[in-house]
Structures are given as structure tokens and as C-alpha cells.
From TrEMBL:
The lineage of its organism: Bacteria, Pseudomonadati, Pseudomonadota, Alphaproteobacteria, Hyphomonadales. Keywords: Membrane, Transmembrane, Transmembrane helix. The chain crosses the membrane at residues 7-28, 34-55, 95-117, 129-153, 160-178, 184-206, 218-237, 249-268. Pfam families: MFS_1. The keyword Transmembrane helix applies. Coiled coil: none annotated. Gene3D superfamilies: MFS general substrate transporter like domains. Residues 1-273 form the Major facilitator superfamily (MFS) profile domain. This is MFS transporter. The keyword Heme does not apply. GO terms for molecular function: transmembrane transporter activity. InterPro entries: MFS (IPR011701), MFS_dom (IPR020846), MFS_trans_sf (IPR036259), Proton-linked_MCT (IPR050327).
Length: 284
């Protein structure tokens, strides 16, 4: 849990913290078209060379894999890993509860994250202050992924995520209705806790409930659904603004959906050290 949080938190968090600041500066200097071009150049000039130069298999790993494929004595990895198939996972109540909880939470938090600046500027807050708020949001998201991993390792229960999801709801209300900048920044930090928990929990929960036998396939399905919600929720929030003329209605809808996601987390079974969730459901 801790290592998953570190791997995800530092990479996503560093980019999510620095890029809004860079984008805000480019927006002021070059306009929105120049800002888009600048963001693309940053990705191409920094991200692509780093991946091309450093993304490699571990030394000797490729040779081991090729040797294993040629040797009939080497058993397939799926025979040695415990867990369930995608079909078996999809037949479980836990699969759908977890998918709904994470998809709702991730969709809502992404909608808020992408609207931090317009929500604040719509209330007359300066671009600089709004940019600081989104940077706080992103920085806490990064750090809290590490903390989420630590807490999951320490307490070994899905209920660890419940207060973190609740913090996101409180943060959203502070963010929307706070009149002083410190209150708004506290709200942004609380929402960062919620988004960090979303990112930090998914891989851990999937591995604990469904094992490693089909982990790649199952987590791929989860991420596909989550991405659909993350892409659709901001659009629906924009439509809500166009219809009502403000973000108030959207904020309350998002708060309700986050509350629903929190309740769904409470419905998840406890982790088992000796059997998968599929085994537990069959026994029950």
C-alpha cells in the first residue's frame, strides 16, 4: 500500500502541483492558445525524453522472460498466482460496489479539480489566488496517496477510506461557501485528501479483493470505467452551469454523489489474509 502511494503520489502530484502554476503564467502572458501550446511543448520536451531514456525492463528481466517462454518446464504465471478471473470477479457483489464507489468519487473529484479556477474566478477571486488553491489541492492529493497507502498497511481495512471521502465532502462545502481565502484553501486541502484516497485505494483494493491472477485485466476494466466518469462529470458540471447560471446546484449534486460513494465503501467486506472476496462470498 505504501509503495503504491509513493509511486503514484510523487509522479502525479509533482505534475499536478507545478503544471497549474505554469499554465496560469502562460495564460496571462500568451493567452489560452499559447498556454495549450506551451503545455504540449512541456510534455514533448520533458516527458517524452525521460520515458524514452529511462523506461526499461529490469536488467536481465527480458532474457528471463524469453528463456521462460522457450522452456516447457516453466509454469505460466497464472498457475502460481492466487485470485479470480474477470468473469468470476464480475459475478461478485464486491466488484460492483467497489466500481460504483470509486467511479463516483473519482468523477466528482475530477469535476471539481478541473473547475477550481473558474469556480473561484466566478466569485471574483483573482487568477493568482485560484491557481494557488488548485496547487494546494494537487499537492495534498499527491502527499495523501502516500498516507493512504500507509494507513491501509497499518489498519488493513477498507473503512480507512471513509473519513477521507467524508473530508472531501466537507472540503467541497468549505470551498464553495467559504468567504475568506484561508477557508477556501482549507477546503482545497480537504478535497485533496479525498482525491488522494481515490487514487491510493483502487489498486490496493483490487489486489486484496480479487488477487493477482487477473489483476491487470480487472484493474484495466476499473480504470476504463473510472476514466469515463472522469471525462463525463466535468462536462455535466459545465452543462449545469449553463442551465442554472451558477455552480451551486452542481456542488450539491456532487456532494450527494460523494456521500453515496462513502456509504458504498461502508458496504465493502473486510479484507481477508487467507482468501479472496470470491471465496468469502461463496462461503457466505
Amino acid at each position: 500500500g505504501l509503495m503504491l502511494g509513493v509511486a503514484a503520489g510523487f509522479g502525479n502530484g509533482l505534475g499536478s502541483t507545478l503544471m497549474p502554476i505554469a499554465a496560469g503564467l502562460m495564460l496571462v502572458q500568451f493567452g489560452w492558445r499559447g498556454a495549450y501550446i506551451g503545455i504540449g511543448l512541456i510534455v514533448f520536451c520533458l516527458g517524452f525524453p525521460v520515458l524514452f531514456a529511462l523506461l526499461r525492463d529490469a536488467p536481465g528481466r527480458l532474457a528471463v522472460i524469453q528463456k521462460g517462454e522457450r522452456s516447457a518446464r516453466v509454469s505460466p504465471a497464472t498457475e502460481t498466482l492466487s485470485g479470480v478471473s474477470l468473469g468470476e470477479a464480475a459475478s461478485m457483489r464486491t466488484f460492483w460496489i467497489l466500481m460504483a464507489a470509486v467511479a463516483l468519487g473519482a468523477g466528482c473529484m475530477t469535476a471539481i479539480f478541473t473547475h477550481v479556477v473558474p469556480m473561484l474566478m466566478d466569485r471574483g477571486i483573482s487568477l493568482q489566488s485560484a491557481t494557488l488553491a488548485i496547487s494546494i489541492f494537487a499537492l495534498v492529493t499527491a502527499g495523501w496517496q502516500v498516507m493512504t497507502g500507509y494507513f491501509l498497511d497499518r489498519f488493513y481495512t477498507p473503512k480507512v477510506a471513509v473519513p477521507m471521502f467524508a473530508a472531501a465532502i466537507l472540503g467541497l462545502l468549505c470551498f464553495q461557501y467559504g468567504t475568506a481565502l484561508p477557508t477556501i484553501y482549507i477546503g482545497a486541502a480537504l478535497m485533496g485528501i479525498g482525491l488522494g484516497a481515490e487514487f491510493g485505494c483502487l489498486s490496493y483494493f483490487v489486489s486484496r479483493y480479487f488477487g493477482l491472477r487477473s489483476f491487470g485485466t480487472i484493474i484495466g476494466v476499473f480504470y476504463s470505467v473510472v476514466i469515463v466518469f472522469q471525462g463525463g462529470a466535468p462536462v455535466l458540471m459545465d452543462i449545469g452551469f449553463d442551465v442554472t447560471g451558477s455552480y451551486v446546484t452542481s456542488v450539491w449534486v456532487l456532494a450527494g454523489l460523494l456521500l453515496l460513494g462513502t456509504v458504498l465503501i461502508l458496504l465493502l467486506p473486510e479484507f481477508s489474509k487467507n482468501s479472496s472476496a470470491h471465496d468469502q462470498e461463496v462461503i457466505s
